[in-house]
């Protein structure tokens, strides 16, 4: 009987010591903690301008799905909104609107553009992306996610956005 009680006491004692040792141990800092500390201490400007358009305001300008395509809202935040374009349940492209007021260099790349889509300056971004600048402020982009979704498909979908409505947004 003493042996059983002794084991219980020993187990409780060992458990208490284990809890004490592990709770007092210092944890290694997160690999992101230093970067977070540096970025908040140097008075870095906000990543998104205060007067950037709310992402929810962009939703009404995205094209609706049709012809076997479905548009599905994917992300929305201040200055940005994104939809996935699906066909047969598979992601074939990503549609997005970005307010360039937070990143003026994003709009500057359109200054030397000779290509136009729906009357707006256009640029190709890599081999899978096509973008236009609407109202000298809003970048509307279509990015292929499947090889079957071509440059001409991207251009056609850019024209399906409500671009004139977006141009009036301020």
Automatic annotation (TrEMBL):
Protein keywords: Signal
Show the taxonomic lineage: Bacteria, Bacillati, Cyanobacteriota, Cyanophyceae, Coleofasciculales
UniProt keyword Signal present? yes
Judging by the UniProt lineage, the source's domain of life is Bacteria
Give the originating organism. Answer: Funiculus sociatus GB2-A5
Q: This protein is called what? A: Uncharacterized protein
Alphabetical list of PROSITE patterns matching this protein: PROKAR_LIPOPROTEIN
Question: Would you indicate the residue range of the signal peptide?
Answer: 1-28
